[in-house]
Every structure is written in C-alpha cells, then in structure tokens.
Amino acid sequence: MRAPVEAVWTRRYLGGGLEVAEDVLAAEEPLEIRLGHGPLEDRRETRLSVTMRTPGNDEELALGFLFTEGIIHGREDVLRVVHCEDVKEEERGNVVRAELHPSVEVDPSRWQRSFYMSSSCGVCGKSSIDAVRAQGLRPLTPFGAVDPEVITALPERMRNVQTVFRHTGGIHAAALFDRQGSLLILREGVGRHNAVDKVVGAMLMADAPGRAEGPQLPPASDRMLLVSGRAGFELVQKCAMAGIPLMAALGAPSSLAVRLARETGLTLVGFLSEDRFNVYSGGS
Asked: Which stretches of 208-277 are DSSP H helices?
C-alpha cells in the first residue's frame, strides 16, 4: 500500500537565513481504473480512465467514480475491486480492476471520456457538452431549511479530522454529515473530485444490502456533503448522483454548478465559514 504522504528535503528561508529541512508533502500518483465485464466464462477488460489521486481508499475511489459516472447503479453491480498484480513494478499499487456483475452492460463509446483526468478537473477531456451530464441524474428530495447553527459548525469539524492536511497543508477534503451535523465519513485527496468519489464509494459500501458490520448511515435525505475549495459543476453532479440533497463548499460555486443544483433540487451553499454562508439553490 502506497503512503498518502511523502517526505522531501527543502531549503527553507527562515529568519533571514537558509536552512535545509525535511518537509512532508501530500502524495500524488496516478490510479488506472480497469473494468472486468461480460459473462463470467468470457470476461473482457476495458481500461476506463486514469486519475491523479492521493493513495489510499482506492476501492472507494473506484466505486464512487463508477457510480457518479452512471456506469453502475449500486454496490451490487460490482463483484469486487482489486489491485492488479500483473503490472510493471512502477505501476504496482496504482492499477485497480473493478469486476462488474455480468448483468452490467458496458459501452465505452457512451462515456466519451478521454483516458487521462487531471487531479483538478475530472470533466476535462469530455468530448462534448452533452457528455458532461452523467447517466441517471434524477431530481432530489428537497433537504428543506438550512439551520445556520448546524451548517456553520461543519468547517471546523471537518478541519479537526483532516490528518493529511494537518501535516502537508496541500490537500482537499470531502466530508459527509447527518442533518444534525455529526461527521459520518471524511476522505482527503489532491483532487476535490477524487475526495468526493471516495466519500461516495464509502457510502455505497455502507449502504450495501445485507451489510451487518459497521455504523449505519442515516437515510440519503438526511445527509450533507461539505467540500474544501470551490463548488464546480462536476462536484455538484457527483453529489446529486449520490442522492445527497445538500452540498456546502468553503469557496465559491460556478454558474453552471448553480444551474445544475437548481435543476435537480440540490441545496447548494457556498463561501461557508464559521460566521457566514450564501445559499445559491434550495434551502427554503
């Protein structure tokens, strides 16, 4: 398992002089996601995408990505996600294969996604505007009124458990809360969309039918997602695909993000801090 942080040597200017010191950085490495699909007696492999991510929670990342892209519709559509061992040594730990249930139809031409995604923008590379909207996006059950005391407490609660950010200062986070503001899931990553996919993947695993172990999550209608940084279109899309009715961001939303939030009934909060926030959609 690759580490989420990496130590490097740096020359630090401090107090009028230079000193050599060790610094800890957030790790950034490629993850290739492959699909195994077709009848069990005649499996085929499709190389789906490469994304730059912080190592860790790779199964959740793959599940969340497949779900928010509309390739799968639930945890039951995936038999397992495993790291590929038959790869080059430098690729070991950076390639996963998601084995889809034989009933899942795979049509790579439908996805129209280029093979490489940067850590900053999962939409980059889409071949047309029409292809940006994920399959299966449905209207949400409205979250209802936003409680100022609950929503303004979320940034500090997220920050207090951002372990990698505390050591590196260079990583994004996504956190799932219940309606009362209790933290349910937190994941970190060099890319905002990867952190969200990890949260969604963890949700799918927690919500899987027949799962007995671990804490139970509240109904989807009582969940809130908080993201560090800005609220772009793709993050709003992922939140809506996951059935989460409220998304809050520490930064600003984009115009297209607000438009999609209003179309789907998502409550969208921006510029969230301990003493202020803006509501761009829903929240009545």
From this structure: 233-241, 255-264
pLDDT in the model for residue 127: 44
- Burial class for 21, CB neighbours closer than 10 Å (0-12, 13-18, 19+): exposed
Exactly one of 84, 121, 124, 239 is catalytic; name it: 121
| Residue 239 bears catalytic tag | no
Q: Within a 13 Å sphere around the CA of 226, how many CA atoms are in the beta-carbon half?
A: 27
Enter the tokens of residue 34.
């492959």
- For domain 148-281, say whether CATH 3.40.140.10 is its number: yes
At 204, list the tokens: 């799918």
SS3 assignment, position 233 = helix
pTM: 0.88
CB 132 within 8 A of CB 233: yes
Give 59's contacts (C-beta < 8 A, 6+ positions apart). 81, 96, 201, 205
Using DSSP's 3-state secondary structure scheme, residue 98 falls into strand
3-state secondary structure of 36: strand
Domain edges within the chain: 29-132, 148-281
- The CATH architecture that domain 29-132 belongs to is Roll (3.10)
List the single range of 24-28, 119-123, 222-226, 266-270 with lowest mean pLDDT. Answer: 119-123
Please determine, for residue 251, whether its predicted confidence score (pLDDT) is greater than 60.
yes
Weakest mean pLDDT among 3-7, 119-123, 216-220, 266-270: 119-123
